[in-house]
Amino acid sequence: MTTAQATISEDGFPTNFTMDRNFALEAVRVTEAAALAASHWIGKGKEKEADQVAVNAMRDALNGLTINGTVVIGEGERDKAPMLYIGEKVGTGQGPSIDIALDPLEGTTICATGGPNSLAVVAMAEKGGFLHAPDVYMDKIAVGGGLPDGVVSLDASIEENLKNLAKAKQCDISDLMVMILERDRHEELIAKTREAGARIQLISDGDVAGVIATSEPDTGVDMYVGIGGAPEGVLAAAALRCIGGQMQGKLLFKDDEQRERATRMGVSDLNKIYSLTELAKGDVMFAATGVTNGSMLDGVKRWQGGASTHSIIMRSKTGTVRTIRAKHNFKRKTWVDNEG
What SS3 class is residue 315? Predict the structure, then answer.
């Protein structure tokens, strides 16, 4: 069963563009493959095993696509990641040249513990569409769509951002819900947010889903703020480009080695605050499949010989958002890790 929600009237894709309707379905198949493989490990407390089968399944699915793909946000650099590493070529080598940002298992700890909002995620854009973010931290702030430009900023204090956001939403600060990763590094941020009067939803992991949550009214999340992974920041930006919202990100470096690595990857200004369209520009396609139940997607439901998945596919050019529910027969899917 497939449902579609279009935020603008145009539902078609230009025939001269590299990513067409059929390609959107192929992108979902990639995330479905990773989610199905990881689902066998939900709640088993084994992060590495869950992540590995998701990586294997996503790579196999990507290599079946008729594209000349390059992984620009992936599992890490080549010497640290045996596959889906930054710079790896995927696809058949035929077809359009596409840059790919991915996380086969966003929220490995969440999957291992059976918590909410673990996802399999992939984003695609024309060559040069994504910031080539190294595997470092990124300071992030994000809000949903329909707000004045620049309503929040990393240059402003949390108190100022809450005040400005409440004014834009015509509500009290006490009505705002702020999502923050539960980390020691956020103790001061959490304290100041509460002192300002806002409510907080702490999450253990999964900041891609956290950023996306700001764009969905049903989640009740008004702002995402805090420090998380830079690759996840680019993936979240890709989603917001499609679904609507505002985001800023600033790379954070702990030592000269990380700064040198960023420079080698093409980051010219190490102190720059990136806007949403600088993190993910051009025509972007974003797909995700739920591994565990979450605010945006249901998780994989398994039964003897099969499973169901819940996915979302979005495209920035048209603003179309589609959700896809699918049933899978494991006897006919050779790439599903059914043994664990």
Answer: strand
Question: pLDDT at residue 338 above 50?
Answer: no
Beta-strand relationship, 177-181 and 199-203: parallel
Strand, coil or helix: what is 80?
A: coil
Going from the C-alpha of 300 to that of each of 156, 206, 212, 290, the distances in angstroms are 40, 17, 19, 6
Task: Please tell me the distance from the alpha carbon of residue 335 to that of residue 302, in angstroms, as a whole number.
Answer: 16
Q: What share of the chain is helix, strand, coil (3-state, %, to 5)?
A: 30, 30, 40
Q: Specify the pTM.
A: 0.88
pLDDT of residue 79: 66
pLDDT in tens, 142-181: 999 999 999 999 999 999 999 999 999 999 999 999 999 9
Interacting residues of 3 by C-beta distance below 8 A, sequence separation 6+: 322, 323, 324, 325
DSSP class of 151: S
Q: In this predicted model, what pLDDT tens digit does every residue of 47-97 receive, in sequence order?
A: 999 999 999 999 999 999 999 999 999 998 776 778 999 999 999 999 889
Residue 109 contacts residue 50 (beta carbons within 8 Å)? no
> Which tokens hold the place of 112?
């291992």
- Which residue type sits at 44? K
Query: Distance between CA atoms of 20 and 165, rounded to whole angstroms?
Result: 37
**Looking at the chain, how many residues does it have?**
340
Q: Return the SS3 of 187.
A: helix
Give how far the C-alpha of residue 264 lies from the chain's centroid of Cα atoms, to the nearest Å.
24
pLDDT in tens, 12-54: 333 334 555 567 888 999 999 999 999 999 999 999 999 999 9
